[in-house]
Amino acid sequence: MLGRSLLGTTVMAAALFTACAGAYAFDESKYPDLKGQWVRARVPGVTGQPGYDPTKNQGLAQNAPLKPEFQAILEANIKDQAAGGQGGDPTYACISPGMPRIMNPYGDMEIVITPDTTHILLEHIHDSRRIFTDGRAWPTGYIEAMYRGYSIGKWLDTDGDGRFDTLEVETRHFKGPRAFDAAGIPLHPDNETVVQERIHWDKNKPDTLTDEITTIDHALTRPWTVTKTYVRGHVAQPEWFEEVCAEGNNHIGIAGQNYFMSGDGRLMPAKKDQPPPDLRYFKQPQK
Amino acid sequence: MRFASLIGAAAVMAALMAASDGARAFDDAKYPDLKGQWLRARPPAGVTGQAPFDPDKSWGLAQQAPLTPEYQKILEASLADQAAGGQGSWPSAKCLAVGMPAIMGPFQPMEFIVLPEVTYVRIDHNRDTRRRIFTDGRDWPANIQPSFDGYSIGRWLDTTGNGRFDTLEAETRNFKGPRSFEPSGMALHADNQTIVKERIYLDKADPTLLHNDMTVIDHALTRPWTVEKKYRRDAAEQPFWPEYMCAESTGLIYIGADMYFLGGDGNLMPARKDQAPPDLTYFNLPKKK
Questions:
Q1: Which helix (H) or strand (E) holds A171?
Q2: How confident is the model at residue A48 (pLDDT cuts 50, 70, 90)?
Q3: B156 pLDDT higher than 60
Q4: In chain B, how many domains are there?
């Protein structure tokens, strides 16, 4: 009798537990707690805008493993920027930096985990990403190439504690132009880049996140691996600033040339002795 | 003895339940299934124009917007400018964020990500918009920067009492401008004191249809303006999420207050008949002989 009662109670408990487990389809305790606002970690001694390798200044100091042809492009870009141009950095025209540069990152970053997709939300120029973790294969047939690429990921429990701690990601299907940094370290125009990432959360350092990024690209002599570090802010309700690139952008691109718009709303040269744009389509005299 | 065993078993059951509850903090079965890609529902026959604010009427004057006389004139001037080759008062022409309420047209595919504390609305348009509708019970913040998308606070409701949320009630404030209701250039008030209220819910009979009953309160209007927007869920299991880069595709160039086109060869072109070229005062031009 006692055995039957115990059995009945246990069955009831099991049934309730199963019902409960069924109702909770997304077991978020299996995933790392990445809630909050992340920014790139500052590295002492590193100046200027963030480089691909965050431990070095951008540009030549990165010692990028570029092929000679692309090293020459970088040097030309730096020279152009010194003369007032934008040399190989497409973001001046409000074009997304694309991958892998998105992950430098420029704005505040939020990581939203759902079972099927991890969203990386970045307030900059169309930098937000979807990393599909639903076990899908690479899409077959035509898919539109994108600056941010197409990302497939897999969550790993590397220390066997029953909780995922690492998101392994691969990103393909790019468009360009893209650069590694604002100095204009170029990626190859064939856009056959492959970016591999290991985004790792250490439970012993819960406010630090690392992203080991390896870029495979035909502009490089070998895969280039760097580790980026992000730190979490401690504000309970952080403010998420809205950046609208076109709102404050005074660069004007005409026929492949960059000009400025002056404070009084007139076109200005961006470089010394820059000729004005070709006005062949206008019949009227200048204002 | 038997009683003690029962207590023991019950304790085990309670422990299991508690462990289960603690480990599984997010009961997504309590929320409506909004997964997938949502698009603007096909408008009724005869409705024309891009994403009109009231989706059941053509854009522009046919909307019969309850505008104050001053803002009715702004709309008429915008339409006249567009007829003459301009862009009127539609800020999107400058690749600016369209902001609320126009962003919920929507112009591009839309994704809802429902989590207990926030419902995200991702729409990749001029800006890769990610509205955050905070559902964590917070109050309106003090001293935050205004934005085109505004600041949204929401609340999930179980309107049928079946133990499952079915309606997201949201209110959005704290705007910046310029913003328009729709591409005709129907402007919201320049004071940006707009309040947008939404009730977002799945259709009871059709889970591929999402409703957004939207009310805008704005000083450009004589009364609150309520419309019923509808979104249709794409049937694709793995929909493609396009990347929309306004700056890449726009053929418009603004120099000061003047708009020009970029020709196929990249050269500047007039956007209006007999439009004068831009002022080149700041260039070292060769002196005329």
A1: strand A166-172
A2: confident
A3: yes
A4: 2
pLDDT at A253: 86
The distance of A44 to chain B (nearest Cα, Å) reads 30
Q: Which of A173, A192, A92 is nearest to A130 (CA)?
A: A173
Separation CA A139–CA B138 (nearest Å): 41
Q: Which of B13, B92, B98 should one mutate to test binding to chain A, selecting the residue with the greatest count of A CBs within 10 A?
A: B13
pLDDT for the residue B11: 47
Nearest-CA neighbor of A106 among A87, A91, A117, A85? A91
Domain-located, residue B246: no
Within a domain: B239:
no
Contact: A139, B238; criterion CB under 8 Å: yes
Residues of A in contact with B115 (CB under 8 A): 112, 114
List chain A residues with CB under 8 Å of B269. 281-282
Is B65:B53 a contact under the CB 8 Å cutoff? yes
Residues B263 and B226 in one domain: no
Alpha-carbon gap, residue A200 to A185, rounded angstroms: 26
Q: Which domain range does residue B216 map to?
A: 38-233
Residue A21 pLDDT greater than 70, yes or no: no
Q: Which of A10, A121, A237 sits opposite B141 (nearest CB)?
A: A237
**Whether the Cβ atoms of residue B100 and residue B175 lie closer than 8 Å to each other:** yes
